Amino acid sequence: MSENLKDTYLTIESSSEGLFKDKGSKFIAYAYPIYSEDEVKPIIEVLKKEHYSARHHCFAWRLGVDGERFRANDDGEPSGSAGKPILGQLLSKNITNILVVVVRYFGGTLLGVPGLINAYKNATRDVIDNANVIEKIVEDKVEVTFDYLVMNDVMKVIKDEDLKQLSSEYDLMCKIVLPVRQQKTKRVVERLSKIESAIVEIIGTR
């Protein structure tokens, strides 16, 4: 883990709604913070039940610190006229770990591809503007198991590095789980590993 590792990203704090209208068509946008692709389908299914008479339920999502995983879906709109402009707004705002679904109610007048692109873009812009965009830090969960006799050495590292404890078990053999900012993980693991009897393991991220 490099000290220059990018370990922060922008996302939204909680779900939000947005709206754009054009020539009788209504584009209702919903944004959700998500952390895995598995969350996408259930959310869309709920929206399809809520808006069963809507013509389209188009969406885009991004995942990962750099937004390296993403997908856009036009849901029956002309290719590239819905999912792509939704995703384009996520890219331009540099937001990740987010799903945006735009529900369209047809107003009777065809908008054409340029009109659709504009509508989906503006509905997405509105839902992001209505959300609270926050910066989050990626942390590794570091588990350290050690003999009770070296407790002071372990606690010194925890104090020096200003770490909190997620969980702890104190016995003859002790176990502590620490959230460590990814930029610091390599240094913290090296320091803890030098302590006699200490076994250090990265058990996940959050």
List keywords for this structure.
206 residues, alpha+beta, Ribosomal Protein S5, domain 2, Alpha-Beta Plaits, 2 domains, 5-stranded antiparallel sheet, 4-stranded antiparallel sheet, 5 helices, 30% helix, 36% strand, elongated
Give a written overview of the molecule.
The structure is a single chain. The mean pLDDT is 95. The protein has two domains: 8-135, Impact, N-terminal domain (Ribosomal Protein S5, domain 2), CATH 3.30.230.30; 138-205, Alpha-Beta Plaits (2-Layer Sandwich). It is an alpha+beta fold and 206 residues long. It is 30% helix and 36% strand.
List the helices and strands and how they pair.
Layout: E1 8-12, E2 16-22, E3 25-33, H1 40-50, E4 56-63, E5 69-73, H2 83-92, E6 98-105, H3 112-129, E7 133-137, E8 139-147, H4 151-160, E9 167-169, E10 173-181, H5 182-193, E11 199-205
Antiparallel strand pairs: 1-7, 2-3, 3-6, 4-5, 4-6, 8-10, 8-11, 9-10
Provide a short characterization of the protein structure.
The protein is α+β, with helices and mostly antiparallel strands. It contains 5 helices and 11 strands; from the N terminus they run E-E-E-H-E-E-H-E-H-E-E-H-E-E-H-E.
What is the ordering of alpha helices and beta strands? Answer: EEEHEEHEHEEHEEHE
Strand order of the largest sheet: 2-3-6-4-5
CATH class of the largest domain: Alpha Beta
Report mean pLDDT, rounded to a whole number: 95
In whole angstroms, the N-to-C terminal distance is 16 Å
For the biggest sheet, the summary is:
5 strands, antiparallel
- Poorly predicted residue ranges: none
Secondary-structure class: alpha+beta
Overall 3D form = elongated
- Proportion of residues in helical segments: 25-40%
Helix segment count?
5
CATH topology of the largest domain: Ribosomal Protein S5, domain 2
Please identify, by name, the CATH architecture of the largest domain.
2-Layer Sandwich
Strand content: 35-45%
How many domains make up the 3D coordinates? 2
| Spatial extent as radius of gyration | 23 Å
